[in-house]
Amino acid sequence: MKINTLMPQKKSFTTQEIVEKLRIGEKVEDITAYLYRRFEVKAIRLVQRLGGVYEDAQDVLHDSLLALLQHIQEGKFDANGVASLDTYFYSIVRNEWLNKNRGNSRRLQREETAVAMTGSVETTTPLSEMIQNDTAFQVFQRIGEKCRKILSAYHAENRPLTEIAEELQISLGALRVEKHRCMKKLSSLVNEL
Question: What is the pTM assigned to this prediction?
Answer without folding.
Answer: 0.50
